[in-house]
Specification:
With 330 residues, the protein is of the alpha+beta class. The protein has twelve helices and twelve strands. The strands form three sheets. Strands 1, 2, 3, 5, 6 and 7 form a six-stranded antiparallel sheet that branches. Strands 4-11-10-8 form a four-stranded mixed sheet, with helices on one face. Helix 5 crosses helix 11 (301-312) and helix 7 runs parallel beside helix 9 (268-279). The termini are far apart. The mean pLDDT is 93.
């Protein structure tokens, strides 16, 4: 491994002073600042698409991003002796967003609004468009929920996890169907058309792992899943994860939405869509899906604990949803 790393590093115009392993990569201290070296399996057009997005953020908003450096051959990819592609990215001496700190969370939500305002290309890159609409996704998930319920009902002997899933099914499936109805009334098709016409880009993975707090600055990293797509999905993903980690505190969720709106006013269709996505019991669906696609002869007690935790937080979640409805649905 050491020899392979040296071989890769020599192909870049920088001097490495020290290095250490980090999550899925190597953090390098060089004479030109911090760098992140990692394997990368995407195609050349894909990484060029990502770098165009980052360049736009730097030029239009002076945002800090993890831009990718070219090697001595002026190429983004550097191949090792096993023909694996590696990339070197700019990195920062920051810490991940503290998902339990309200001030840090508010900064991240506000910054996302700024990010979305800048992420409009004015044209559609047909190679990187959101493949499945949120409407199609909800419909698919609801069919999966019904299929799993039928499967469990057909079993003669049911384990505790299966009994618990059935016992809570009507509540969460009712929410899923209502969410689908709200989405259908949101004006989604018109929103999607605007997204295509303006070339609106979503980050695709805006979470606390990919937002670094660098003193007074914020750094956005890992645009690996960015695409032309519904931007408000980023806010939903961030909001849901934060709320799950903080027991669905209503005032926290309300503040996240207000901070985002402070930087970028949402269209009516986006507000309704956000409410529909929040209403959808995604954590419950994930557990159901994991159960159905895993080995049924052995079920992790951890997943049962997760299901029980979801149910224990339902009252708080409903309080938040009521606040969100008042804030988003005019």
């Amino acid at each position: 491994m050491e020899d392979k790393l040296e071989e890769i590093i020599r192909q870049y115009p920088c001097q490495v002073r020290s290095r250490r392993r980090t999550r899925g990569a190597f953090l390098l201290e060089t004479d030109q600042g911090l760098r992140l070296l990692k394997e990368y399996s995407a195609s050349r057009p894909r990484i060029e698409f990502e770098e165009r997005i980052k360049e736009q953020l730097v030029l239009r908003g002076n945002l800090l991003v993890d831009n990718t450096y070219k090697n001595k051959k002026e190429e983004y990819f550097t191949r090792d002796r096993y023909r694996n592609n590696w990339i070197m990215r700019r990195w920062y001496a920051g810490t991940e967003c503290d998902i339990r700190d309200a001030q840090s969370i508010a900064r991240c939500a506000s910054y996302l609004g700024k990010l979305h305002t800048l992420l409009k290309t004015g044209q559609t890159d047909t190679n990187y468009i959101q493949k499945e609409s949120i409407q199609q996704e909800m419909e698919r998930h609801n069919k999966e929920l019904k299929r799993v319920r039928s499967y469990i009902r057909g079993k003669k002997q049911k384990k505790e996890m299966e009994i618990c899933l059935l016992d809570s099914f009507d509540t969460y499936y009712g929410q899923a169907c209502l969410a689908q109805t709200v989405l259908q009334e949101s004006g989604y098709d018109k929103l999607w058309q605007s997204t295509l016409e303006e070339g609106r880009i979503s980050h695709g993975s805006y979470n606390y792992h990919n937002v670094l707090m660098n003193g007074k600055d914020i750094v956005i990293t890992n645009f690996d899943r960015s695409e032309v797509g519904i931007q408000i999905r980023d806010l939903y993903d961030f909001l849901r994860k934060v709320m799950e980690k903080n027991a669905w505190k209503p005032e926290l969720g309300e503040n996240i939405i207000r901070e985002y709106i402070g930087q970028r006013e949402m269209e009516p269709a986006e507000k309704t869509l956000l409410y529909a996505m929040l209403l959808y019991p995604e954590k419950y669906w994930k557990l159901v899906n994991f159960y159905y696609n895993s080995r049924k002869s052995w079920m992790s007690a951890r997943n049962l604990d997760k299901l029980l935790k979801i149910r224990s937080q339902e009252e708080q979640r409903n309080e938040f949803l009521e606040k969100a409805r008042e804030l988003l649905i005019e």
